[in-house]
Amino acid sequence: MTNLILTSSFKRAFKAIIKREPNLKPKIEAKLRLLADNQPNPNSY
Known about the structure:
globular; mainly alpha
């Protein structure tokens, strides 16, 4: 598993979305974990 680099603008937007729609937090976190585990390799195309 690799680490995703989260920018300050992403963190700010994430907090805003979670404040409006708290039920989306687990879904977004799950998708980010999936992305970190299965990063696309641009050289494989």
